[in-house]
């Protein structure tokens, strides 16, 4: 095996100050076609990086001479260092495109969430930007799709940073490479606990998913950064709000305008964003973006129709809570018919209540939590 591979970040058409001699002394220089044309010394053999990147880099690691890899910005930040990580490296970073984008906007970014939609489905990046107050998204040709999905947020596209074609805040089509900066209200996940008591939420006559049930439902939903969760029949919004506290983007759907208003007030109390939709499921679900997880808190006579809609479009898990035992088997069968792996657990909780100088066990109504997971 050869010695270390030298990785140089490139910004504004230059390698980092003090590394010019490393580039000039290289026997082999690898990078994108444009950067090789601009920077590779005439004495070095050039290797263009493109498709089959991992195989090409493995070959470079066994070159007998001095190898330099040129990469955009900070090669360790969503960059080529990850692919080269098993080999001895000497890395000299330039400012990353994200750092440059925030600098151009005059914004601090230690509190920003950075995600990549480069060469991957942009939905997780979009969901992250819908939930978090400051997000940078690394993109490719999907920048226009991302901007369209984030209408209503403050979105700035920083294009071709450090080049003569640099543009900040322009309209599509967007030049490559670019970074999408998304700003919103200063609200960030801060959940240090979950399954909050019912007293943490405004609700009507006990019409709320109890803490014990919510704990099991949240475990099955698994909400986190980049996820979108539907709360169908959101009621007080307790499940929706807990998912948002854990970092997910959330949509609460209910046919009752009063329930929607209660959910909105509870979300404001807990300082989390929850999008609300007033309408009867499943019809109200038709125009919504597909979720990673769905919670159905009842459903009534429409439960079968709701499950027929949510099961095919939910990417990870559908969680249903039912109090009537007659609905358990049909709901399980409905989810299984859509190819989900289905389990069910009936919860019977007893809470201690004062009684004659001591305590008694006060039983809560049994609730069955049905979980359908995508295999």
Automatic annotation (TrEMBL):
Organism lineage string: Bacteria, Bacillati, Actinomycetota, Thermoleophilia, Solirubrobacterales
Domain Tetrapyrrole methylase: 20-168
Any single GO BP term: methylation
A Pfam family it matches: TP_methylase
Gene3D superfamilies, per database record: Cobalt-precorrin-4 Transmethylase, Domain 1, Methyltransferase, Cobalt-precorrin-4 Transmethylase, Domain 2, Vaccinia Virus protein VP39
Gene Ontology MF terms: protein methyltransferase activity
PANTHER family: COBALT-PRECORRIN-6B C(15)-METHYLTRANSFERASE (DECARBOXYLATING), COBALT-PRECORRIN-7 C(5)-METHYLTRANSFERASE
Pathway annotation from the record: Cofactor biosynthesis; adenosylcobalamin biosynthesis
Protein name per the record: Precorrin-6y C5,15-methyltransferase (Decarboxylating) subunit CbiE
């Amino acid at each position: 095996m050869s010695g270390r591979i030298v990785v140089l970040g490139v910004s504004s058409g230059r390698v980092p100050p003090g590394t010019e001699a490393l580039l000039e002394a290289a026997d082999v220089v690898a990078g994108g076609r444009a950067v090789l044309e601009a920077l590779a010394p005439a004495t070095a053999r050039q290797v263009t990086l493109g498709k089959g990147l991992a195989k090409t880099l493995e070959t470079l690691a066994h070159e007998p001479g001095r190898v330099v890899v040129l990469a955009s910005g900070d090669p360790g930040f969503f960059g080529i260092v990850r692919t080269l990580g098993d080999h001895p490296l000497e890395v000299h970073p330039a400012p990353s495109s994200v750092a440059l984008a925030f600098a151009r906007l005059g914004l601090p970014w230690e509190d920003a969430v950075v995600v990549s939609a480069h060469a991957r489905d942009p939905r997780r990046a979009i969901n992250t930007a819908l939930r978090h107050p400051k997000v940078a998204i690394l993109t490719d040709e999907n920048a226009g799709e991302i901007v369209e999905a984030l209408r209503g947020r403050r979105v700035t596209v920083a294009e071709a940073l450090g080049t003569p074609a640099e543009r900040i805040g322009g309209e599509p089509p967007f030049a490559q490479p670019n970074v999408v900066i998304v700003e919103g209200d200063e609200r960030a996940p801060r959940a240090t606990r979950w399954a909050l008591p019912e007293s943490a939420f405004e609700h009507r006559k006990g019409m709320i998913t109890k803490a014990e049930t919510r704990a099991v439902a949240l475990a099955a939903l698994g909400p986190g950064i980049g996820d979108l969760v539907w709360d169908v029949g959101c009621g007080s919004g307790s499940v929706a709000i807990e998912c948002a506290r854990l970092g997910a983007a959330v949509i609460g759907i209910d046919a009752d305008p009063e329930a929607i208003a209660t959910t909105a007030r509870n979300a404001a109390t807990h300082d989390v964003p929850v999008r609300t939709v007033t309408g009867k499921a499943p019809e109200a679900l038709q125009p919504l973006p597909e979720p990673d997880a769905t919670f159905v808190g009842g459903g009534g006579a429409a439960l079968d129709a709701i499950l027929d809609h949510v099961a095919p479009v939910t990417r990870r898990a559908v969680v249903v809570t039912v109090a009537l035992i007659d609905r358990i088997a049909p709901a399980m069968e409905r989810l299984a018919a859509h190819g989900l792996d289905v389990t069910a657990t009936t919860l019977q909780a007893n809470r201690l209540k004062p009684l004659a100088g001591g305590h008694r066990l006060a039983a809560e109504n049994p609730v069955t939590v049905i979980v359908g997971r995508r295999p």
